[in-house]
Amino acid sequence: MERQHGKRFAEKHGPDATPNSLIKNEILKRTHKNEIPCAVAFEIAEALQVSADAVGMTADLMDYKLVKCQLGLFGYPPKKKIVKSQDPVAEDLKNAISDALDQEKLSCKSAWKIASRFKIHKMKISGACEAMGVKITHCQLGAF
After folding, report:
1. Does residue 15 sit in the same domain as residue 53?
2. CA-to-CA distance for 108 and 81, rounded, in angstroms?
3. What are 95-105's pLDDT values in tens digits?
4. Positive or negative CA dihedral for 25, 27, 30, 33?
5. Spatial distance between the Cα atoms of 114 and 125, rounded to a whole number of angstroms
6. Domain ends where: 25, 52, 67?
7. Which of 83, 46, 49, 84 is nearest to 68 (CA)?
């Protein structure tokens, strides 16, 4: 599967990068249509005791498309992004997000931690970020 720009996912890792065979086999077992949902990638990482970015890199090297971001930021055709602004944002949640910002942006990992701390769905965090005008960066799988 190719990116819209005509580049293959594997190209961002350089010509010498090779997929991890254990991760590759697990991806092949659990997916179809050359797509891997975010949640499945994290299940594989946990099952194999590897990092999420290792799963993301292996998926890229297999030219698999990462889909169904758990924050709702990508992988939902036809619009790609399904996150909606969650306005108003509770003051305690707003403060938690503000405290976790790095250069005015929130990392994916920090968003997950906040969701866990508040015991709310991850998309509530990205929705709060939408309302606050905060960009989420550094996908744990390497998608963005």
Report:
1. yes
2. 15
3. 999 999 999 99
4. negative
5. 7
6. 67
7. 83
pLDDT for residue 3 is more than 70 = no
Crossing angle of helices 122-132/91-100, nearest 10°? 80
Best CA proximity match to 138, nearest among 119, 100, 110: 110
DSSP code string of 51-100: -HHHHHHHHHHTTPEEE--TTSSS-BTTTB-------SPPHHHHHHHHHH
- Of the candidates 7, 55, 2, 11, the residue with the CA atom closest to the CA atom of residue 31: 55
The whole-angstrom separation of Cα 98 and Cα 27 is 36
| CA pair distance 62, 133, nearest whole angstrom | 34
Q: What is the pLDDT of residues 113-136, one digit of tens each?
A: 999 999 999 999 999 999 999 999
The Cα–Cα gap between 40 and 67 comes to: 10
Rounded Cα–Cα distance for residues 74 and 61 (Å):
19
Phi, psi of 32 (to 5 degrees): -150, 170
**Token pair of 5, please?**
């720009």
Asked whether residue 60 falls in the same domain as residue 99, the answer is: no
Residue 119 lies in a domain: yes
